[in-house]
């Protein structure tokens, strides 16, 4: 398994990370804990969990598994939301609870979790807030490094990372949405942060639509393997975090990582073009439509509309997608909604894919949460 340096921390992390959010909770915890042992035997050393994952069983499963893993050879990551732990004292207690459940003396990476708007970041950083509690934990050796996990657009990620408060960042980036998210990745890299990519399989969409995404794969490879390879091969990404349920999932990820060569800017450009050519009705995230006079995030809306085109989502499903993206996804922090479009036509003129943007924006009115 390839290993990378996580930012400037000196920590070595496996290129594939174990995401502890997809355990089969019908199984006994001990059985799920064996999955971590299996992953470790395949070279995976980055283990990520959080309170609440898998009906709140994930940290306990990790705790069982960690009893039999060499502590010094694994990196353990967990998280806490500033909206849940608003004061330094609450943040400190949350870390102590996670430590107890994980059965370890120190957490290698603790994430200020789920920053979706700048207010969340400001909440974490205010005097007496979560970050202050985490600094105390770090001073006392309860956590080694503080990172953040964010769903915000690239320019906001850049703002958050500009003050050197975080050793690294967890970002939702994958082979389908990278044109839209890559700015944030480059910013994080330029600032010397560790970068972990979450949601590598686009929420399961790639394995579920292997036929439609066959064009992403090299000969002898599945689209799922291609998606994992894409992240492992990108020198900007330290860990591709994959949620595992079975040993087969682990085998697939490990195989894809083994076959990954370096991925340069040229290949990324070719891939972007391939996305546009094979799925002619989709937004490639090129950004040429920027500058809407009403401040509507046109590319963000069109990325969400991609779901309709690629997976033939129903109105009901689109409503749910839009709700998700307003709260967690790429429309968080938008300055204006789709219905504020005055149909000036400027974005359509600029669109490299010649998309009927105004017509699509009109459809969003039906999907308003
Ligand atoms: S057509 Fe609508 S979305 Fe496009 S630039 Fe004009 S106001 Fe903005
Ligand atoms: S110009 Fe067209 S393809 Fe490019 S980001 Fe905007 S909507 Fe998407």
Structure description:
It is a single chain. The protein is globular. It has two domains: 3-263, NADP-dependent oxidoreductase domain (TIM Barrel, Alpha-Beta Barrel), CATH 3.20.20.100; 279-367, no CATH class. The strands form two sheets. Strands 3-4-5-6-7-8-9-10 form an eight-stranded parallel beta barrel, surrounded by six helices. A two-stranded antiparallel sheet has the order 1-2. Helix 8 (178-190) links the parallel strand 8 (168-172) and strand 9. 44% of the residues lie in helices and 14% in strands. The protein contains 16 helices and ten strands. The mean pLDDT is 90. It has helices at 29-41, 53-56, 58-66, 88-102, 118-125, 130-139, 154-161, 178-190, 205-208, 223-233, 247-258, 265-278, 298-311, 315-327, 346-350, 357-364, and strands at residues 3-5, 12-14, 16-19, 46-48, 75-80, 107-115, 143-150, 168-172, 194-198, 239-243. The protein has 369 residues and is an alpha/beta fold. It binds iron/sulfur cluster (2 copies).
Write the CATH homologous superfamily of the largest domain.
NADP-dependent oxidoreductase domain
Class by alpha and beta content: alpha/beta
Q: Any ligands, ions or cofactors bound here, and which?
A: iron/sulfur cluster
Could you report the average pLDDT, rounded to the nearest whole number? 90
The CATH topology of the largest domain is given as TIM Barrel
| CATH level-two architecture of the largest domain | Alpha-Beta Barrel
Query: Could you tell me how far the N terminus lies from the C terminus, measured between alpha carbons in angstroms?
Result: 43 Å
């Amino acid at each position: 398994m390839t290993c990378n340096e996580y930012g400037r921390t000196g920590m070595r992390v496996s290129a594939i990370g174990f995401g502890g959010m997809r355990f089969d909770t019908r199984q006994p915890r001990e059985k799920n804990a064996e999955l971590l042992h299996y992953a470790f035997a395949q070279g995976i050393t980055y283990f990520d969990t959080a309170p609440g994952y898998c009906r709140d069983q994930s940290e306990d499963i990790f705790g069982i598994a960690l009893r039999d893993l060499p502590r010094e050879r694994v990196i353990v990551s967990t998280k806490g939301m500033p909206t849940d732990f608003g004061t330094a004292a609450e943040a400190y207690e949350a870390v102590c609870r996670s430590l107890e459940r994980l059965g370890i003396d120190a957490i290698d990476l603790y994430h200020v979790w789920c920053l979706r708007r700048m207010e969340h970041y400001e909440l974490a950083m205010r005097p007496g807030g979560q970050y202050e509690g985490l600094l105390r934990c770090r001073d006392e050796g309860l956590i080694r490094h503080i990172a953040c996990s964010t769903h915000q657009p690239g320019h906001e990620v850049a703002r958050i990372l500009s003050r050197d408060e975080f050793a690294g960042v967890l970002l939702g980036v994958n082979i389908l949405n990278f044109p839209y998210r890559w700015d944030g990745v480059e910013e994080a890299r330029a600032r010397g942060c560790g970068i972990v990519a979450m949601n590598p399989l686009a929420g399961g969409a790639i394995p579920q639509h292997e036929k439609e995404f066959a064009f992403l794969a090299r000969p002898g490879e599945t689209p799922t393997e291609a998606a994992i390879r894409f992240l492992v091969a990108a020198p900007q990404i330290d860990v591709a975090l994959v949620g595992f349920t079975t040993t087969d999932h682990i085998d697939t990820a490990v195989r894809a990582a083994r076959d990954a060569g370096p991925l340069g800017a040229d290949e990324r450009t070719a891939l972007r073009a391939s996305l546009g050519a094979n799925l002619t009705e989709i937004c490639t995230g090129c950004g040429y439509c920027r500058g809407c006079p009403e401040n509507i995030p046109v590319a963000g809306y069109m990325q969400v509309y991609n779901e309709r085109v690629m997976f033939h989502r129903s109105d009901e499903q689109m409503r749910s997608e839009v709700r998700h993206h307003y709260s967690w996804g790429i429309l968080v922090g938008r300055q204006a909604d789709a219905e504020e479009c005055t149909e000036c036509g400027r974005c359509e003129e600029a669109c490299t894919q010649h998309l009927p943007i105004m017509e699509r924006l009109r459809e969003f009115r039906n999907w308003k949460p």
